[in-house]
Amino acid sequence: MAPSTSSTAWRSLPSSLVSIATLSSLFLSLTGPAAAFDCKDIQAQGQHFNLGTLGGPHKLHWVDEHLEVERRYNYTFDIDICQKLAWHKGGTKETECRHGTRICAYQEETNLLTDNTTLQPIEIAGTYTTGAHRLIDARFELFRKTGSHADADREGFRAELHGGRFPFDDSRKGLDQQAIIEFVCDAERTGLEGNEKDDGEKQDGDDEKDDDEKKDKDKDSSASLGRRESKCEDSDASLRFCGYDTEDAAEGKDKKVRTLRLEWRTKYACENAPDDTPRSHWGFFTWFIIILFLATAAYLIFGSWLNYNRYGARGWDLLPHGDAIRDIPYVLKDCARKVKDSVQGPGSRGGYSAV
Ligand SMILES: *[C@@H]1O[C@H](CO)[C@@H](O)[C@H](O)[C@H]1NC(C)=O
Ligand SMILES: *[C@@H]1O[C@H](CO)[C@@H](O)[C@H](O)[C@H]1NC(C)=O
């Protein structure tokens, strides 16, 4: 970076900045949530929902005993609808779901005869772009638009998340996994009542007063529905486990998919829900400007430092392309004149002047 005399250096400055910015934005879009879905702006058939407050890992448990084969399966489900799960401290590839997972099942299998226990992570939903290319392919539908009788008296929406398989690496024999979460509108719940945090502690519900009333109402509605939603665990937590069974896949009778069914009661699933989480308005353009600014600053600082050290430059000469920068006002003036000329050009020739 010699003190600017060469015009090629001057010309390469903007193009190198542009390529830095392009690279950075490419990087942002690759690592960002673009490949998945934005929990703060879920679009279900024209309705927008903001589930930002339900983010973060949530835990559920389920014990499934198969006495006929002397096995007990103790499942722990980790769920983060907003971003991929982080590994537990000391976790390894053998004990954790692979990166990109949003819903992971930890299956603890106990042989009741020998008391031998093995732990197996099962990817249920997530976005995987290395190796097997499997996407979360999130689909949302409003209850009121399903046309199903069972959904008619509920407000909210159903989310279907894909991407998982077990065993994940076995594309022939691996069993596809998916999660179906029913977000049910309940104006009195945030959705975090009874939430088990990652350290295994229970969070108190905010509002315990009409629990019994609520339970009765639940029972009534599930009796009349007579659907698998009624199989949800008997718990007053907002997030409830409703099943983890192998079902026929939607796309073909002979295809099976193991489906984790959850129900999440929350006011954020109500249409016209209060939007009290501040939304980030930092779009692509803001990032672009920031990166451009930082790159320019870094370039000027580094260039000045170089000129100072190498050539003992002082004052204007410190800046890389100092004379070019000094010329900027004149270049701009020149540009403005050219633009003005070309705008006024046809008019002065009497071509297409406005009447
Ligand atoms: C299942 O696992 C959880 C967490 O590891 C544990 O707290 C619970 O006692 C286990 N239940 C059974 C029946 O083994
Ligand atoms: C427990 O089971 C694993 C895998 O099934 C097996 O490799 C191991 O030898 C068993 N351990 C005991 C103590 O039976």
Automatic annotation (TrEMBL):
GO terms for cellular component: endomembrane system; phagophore assembly site membrane. GO terms for biological process: protein transport. Residues 1-36 form the signal peptide. Its main location: membrane. The chain crosses the membrane at residues 282-302. It comes from the Eukaryota. It comes from Lophiostoma macrostomum CBS 122681. Residues 191-231 are annotated as: Disordered. Coiled coil: none annotated. Keywords: Membrane, Protein transport, Signal, Transmembrane, Transmembrane helix, Transport. This is Uncharacterized protein. Residues 191-203, 212-231 have a biased composition (Basic and acidic residues). It is found in: Preautophagosomal structure membrane. It is a single-pass type I membrane protein. InterPro entries: Autophagy-rel_prot_27, Man6P_isomerase_rcpt-bd_dom_sf.
